[in-house]
């Protein structure tokens, strides 16, 4: 009976104080939650940043960097260091030596004798041969001159061969630059040239001797041939 009275008293107390009890419990929960949030080390604050808006596009990011243009033509030339200028200025090449290095002097070719050309270079065509009485090519030129007239070297070169041919008489072969070879036929006897010797344009190589049997019906002359890289060419086209 007494217990019943106690229960009724407790119920009446709770009903009268129920609002305050509920409020106290809520405050405790809020306090505990705040403590946990504040003292928890892993909790990081979150910030919201509002990006600014620009009404003028020229004020956007990077718009304040001015455009820069460089005119190469207006730039001053770079001056080489002093050491480089001293080295380059120490080498002096004269205009004359530069011109001589870039422009090689042309070869000078002269006629072996002065006289009338009795037979020209046939350029591979068949021409009538008075001595042989037939048509054949004439690979050189025949220059008339008296017997004993001096025969000169056509150009600078080296004496390649001195020999006697049964048909063409005494002959001399001289090699020159650029694959050019000159041949002199019908020379007099007693040639004193030595093979392998250097010779200059205008040097005497012998005399007219009319020893060329193949052209014996013609006037006294020298038969003169020129070859370029093994091919016969017109000697008069090379003589200046």
Question: What is this structure, in a nutshell?
Answer:
With 240 residues, the protein is of the alpha+beta class.
Please provide a written account of the structure.
This protein is α+β, with helices and mostly antiparallel strands and 240 residues long. The chain is 23% helix and 24% strand. The strands form 3 sheets. Strands 1, 4, 6, 7, 8, 9, 11 and 12 form an 8-stranded antiparallel beta sheet that branches. Strands 2-3 form a two-stranded antiparallel sheet. A two-stranded antiparallel ribbon has the order 5-10. β11 and β12 (231-233) form a beta hairpin. Mean pLDDT is 75; it is low at 43-66, 68-75 and 82-94.
What order do the helices and strands follow? Answer: HHHEEEEEEEEEEEE
CATH topology descriptor of one domain: Glucose Permease (Domain IIA)
Unreliable parts: 43-66, 68-75, 82-94
Sheet with most strands: 8 strands, antiparallel
Labels describing this entry:
Glucose Permease (Domain IIA), eight-stranded antiparallel sheet, single chain, 240 residues, two-stranded antiparallel sheet, alpha+beta
